Amino acid sequence: MCSRSGSRVPRVGVTSCWSCSLSPVDELQAIVAGDTAAFGRWVARAEPRLRASLRSFAAQVDTEAVVQETLLRVWNVAPRFEPDGGPDGLTRLAVRIARNLAVSELRRARVEPVEVDRLEREAEALAEPGTPPDPLLRELIAACVERLPGKPRVAILQRIHARGNASDASLAEAAGMKLNTFLQNVRRARIGLERCLEAGGAVWGDA
Question: pTM higher than 0.85, yes or no?
Answer without folding.
Answer: no
